[in-house]
Amino acid sequence: MARCMVFACGLPLSFWGDAVQYAAYILNRAPTNANPGRASPLKILTKQTPQLGKIVVFGSSCTVQRDPTNKNFSQRAQQGMIIGIGEEVKGYRVYLPKDKKVVTSQHVQNIETLNKTQNLHVQRLYQDRDSAEAEQESREQGSGAANQGSAGKENGTKVRRKVRKKSSKKKTWTRERHGPRNYKEAMHSQSKVGRMKAMVEELKALEGNSVWEQTFGVNYSVTFAAVIDMTCVKLILVLARKWRVPAKHGDVPNAYVKADKEEDLWIYIRVPQGMKVSEEILKELGVETDAKVALELKKALYGLKQAGRLWSKLLHAKLEEIGFHQSLVDMCVYYRYKAGVLIVVGVYVDDLL
Which residue stretches does the UniProt record annotate as biased composition, category Basic residues (predicted)? Predict the structure, then answer.
């Protein structure tokens, strides 16, 4: 399906990822014979009938408004091609051939594969929410003016208030990102429930490991975690496709435990639950119970602030030992060229690509 979508609209093969993503968007909302009542996969998952009014032909020509409120004598719209629908940000994902970039915008008009009525319907889908917000803002401004007017009458003075139009400079008509950048945007995204659940699980993990009980300079000194840039991940996948070799992914089991702790820091822990100290050792130490015993940590553990950095140092040393070199562009990318064979490795904490 994705192959036909790319070839039918005439876009280059570099848009195969967008075609696959849009094809998955359509198939998840399309009726399926394998499900009871030919229900779509999305309906089975969410128990709600998906809306199909936003789906248009992949690669449809359209015009994108830059800023509808701009009154300057400049170009207000630009020609583009629809290559998908935004996930976190509402609107169509549009490729602008002139600027050679992809933007996400709600202000898309003149879609060539739709007639005039259908174009108006698509615009209303995105304008309903904007109209509701604008109406609420006007009510707030009106109530503020009424309060000021009544206060002026009580003081015996006539108040004349000029209503100013709200500046539109803060409005964003096109967006190039696909995910929320902060907590506020995450709470207004479609994946709000999943993100809240992930935050709660992360806090429980930190609480269980007592991470915040560590003191800087006493229990740890420097923190770091190797996280490869997504651009480099895409580069590795493109190289694998070009060379026609499979891109392999591996996870290092118990990676943090393999690294030694910092030599100049002494870290002590309580006896973990489920473990018992032998009576001989208790007598040797001169204590009666395990509660009075402290264990010296020899290896890094998950939950320690410096564990990620210690593991990164160990992995860096091992890769250099077998002939790999660290990239100057991204320190999480390593490469080795030997006997005419180039091997590229990307590091994401304890995952290797």
Answer: 158-172
Nearest-5° angle of CA 279, CA 285, CA 286? 85
Q: How far apart are CA 110 and CA 314, in angstroms?
A: 57
Torsion, Cα 237 241 242 247, to 10 degrees, reads: 60
- Helix, strand, or coil here: 185? helix
Query: What is residue 283's three-state secondary structure?
Result: helix
Positions in the chain short of pLDDT 50: 129, 145-146, 150-160, 162, 167-177, 211-212, 217-220
CA distances from 83 to 5, 136, 349 (A): 10, 33, 33
pLDDT for the residue numbered 68: 62
pTM: 0.38
- Residue ranges in the chain assigned as alpha helix (H): 2-9, 16-27, 41-46, 116-154, 183-187, 192-209, 230-243, 279-285, 307-321
- Coarse DSSP helix, strand, coil percentages of the chain, rounded to the nearest 5 percent: 40, 15, 45
| Token digits of residue 118 | 């259908």
pLDDT tens digit sequence for 301-323: 766 777 788 888 889 999 999 99
Distance CA 126, CA 106 (A): 6
Tell me how far CA of residue 314 lies from CA of 301, 321, 331, in angstroms.
Answer: 14, 11, 14
CB 89 within 8 A of CB 23: no
Query: What is the SS3 assignment for 335?
Result: strand
Q: Are strands 92-96 and 77-85 parallel, antiparallel or unpaired?
A: antiparallel
- Distance of alpha carbon 218 from alpha carbon 351, whole angstroms: 29
